[in-house]
Design a protein that fits this description.
globular, 18 helices, 373 residues
Length: 373
């Protein structure tokens, strides 16, 4: 077995999935929510999480003593949130904006270990990077612990509230699925999630001293929750052909669920799960996007961004009142040039019956953005 094969096997069997930096108390709480039902296939993952969570609790206590007061006193001004469904180009747009070094962003290590990254990152990130696959499981995008990352993992670990847990504990999906938009959740659920978001952003802002660029597809359904804590937040939304999104989301789920799961998942349910998750996401988005104040929102199409990245980014900077784009242009252009030979995944065609369900459940996406049905 080659080293890359061994690395992938270790991640698949022992890797922490989306729970890497969870504390011991929260890990036990999460297990209790699911009646400690872990499939024997995933016992090694559960065992490694138990050990790592105990270490996280000790280091996290030390970190909180050091960072709590200065982070709490730090203001987070005009954070930029990149919105859009999974597989719509949010990662590409995030990487593009993060080329502007006047901004800071959470990297993969920080989102995996939100309780301990200030103390542990300098020591553990180089070591852990040796065992991390060089590309993401679901596509050819470079994966590294220093790369910009979406913050959903961090917020789920801190708040114990996220729809991503539906892939970890599918038997309890009815508990976690509503935590995509939180619209049907309790005020306490919403407040704890907001506290996690605010705390994570404050620590990042304190440590980096820069304004922040955040990306999480899940935030597309949480605009009002974000505005309640950050009324000056700015939003950049990217959309893509719904059929392409469906195919790519199904592919992603097939690749990621085995790496995250602690219970067996009925993979035949993936197409229906994707249809419902997208509908939930954009039902919330279309009902909330009108709440965004004028000058704090800009929308861009994936195809437009691919055809004219500099033109669309300049338009976004202008519409959102971001700093002088001319200073960011050469850095963004270097990033675009570096991924010019990127190979997209090729996906199977969509079954006609599934296509009809997509049209029935996602009509506003086709109509609003003018995609062919």
């Amino acid at each position: 077995m080659t080293f890359p094969d061994l690395r992938t096997a270790l991640i698949t069997s022992f890797g922490p999935g989306c729970l890497a930096g969870i504390s011991l108390f929260d890990w036990i709480t999460l297990l209790a929510q699911n009646r400690f039902r872990v499939h024997p296939k995933y016992f090694p993952r559960a065992a490694s999480l138990t050990v790592s969570s105990a270490i996280t609790s000790v280091v996290g206590l030390c970190e909180s003593l050091i960072t709590a007061i200065p982070a709490r006193q730090t203001a987070v001004k005009e954070p930029v949130f990149i919105l859009g469904c999974w597989r719509s180009g949010t990662t590409h747009l995030h990487n593009l904006m993060c080329a502007d070094d006047r901004y800071a962003y959470p990297n993969l290590y920080q989102t995996m270990y939100p309780h301990t990254w200030v103390l542990s990152e300098p020591v553990l990130r180089p070591l852990m990077g040796m065992f991390l696959p060089k590309k993401r499981f679901m596509d050819n995008v470079v994966m590294g612990l220093q790369e910009p990352a979406e913050d959903e993992m961090a917020l789920g670990i801190v708040s114990l509230r996220s729809n991503m847990f539906s892939w970890v504990f599918p038997a309890n999906a009815s508990r976690y699925d509503p935590q995509l938009s939180f619209e049907s959740c309790t005020p306490r659920d919403r407040r704890l999630w907001q506290d996690a978001l605010e705390g994570f952003l404050k620590k990042l802002a304190w440590k980096t001293g820069k304004p922040l660029i955040l990306k999480s597809p899940n935030h597309t359904a949480r605009i009002n929750l974000i505005l309640e804590r950050f009324p000056d937040a700015k939003f950049l939304h990217i959309h893509r052909n719904p059929y392409d999104v469906f195919r790519s989301m199904c592919h992603m789920a097939n690749k990621v669920i085995p790496v995250w799961g602690l219970q067996k998942y009925d993979m035949s349910r993936i197409p229906q799960m994707v249809i419902e998750a997208y509908a939930h996401l954009y039902d919330a988005y279309f009902s909330q996007v009108k709440s965004i104040p004028q000058g704090q929102f800009f929308e861009i199409g994936y195809d437009e961004l691919s055809a004219d990245p500099m033109g669309r980014m300049e338009a976004a900077y202008s519409a959102l009142g971001l700093p002088d784009f001319s200073l960011a242009r050469p850095k963004m252009q270097r990033y675009v040039d570096s991924v010019s030979d990127y190979q997209r995944n090729q996906h199977a065609s969509i079954d006609p019956a599934i296509r009809e369900q997509i049209l029935a459940r996602w009509p506003r996406s086709f109509d609003t953005w003018g995609y062919e049905r």
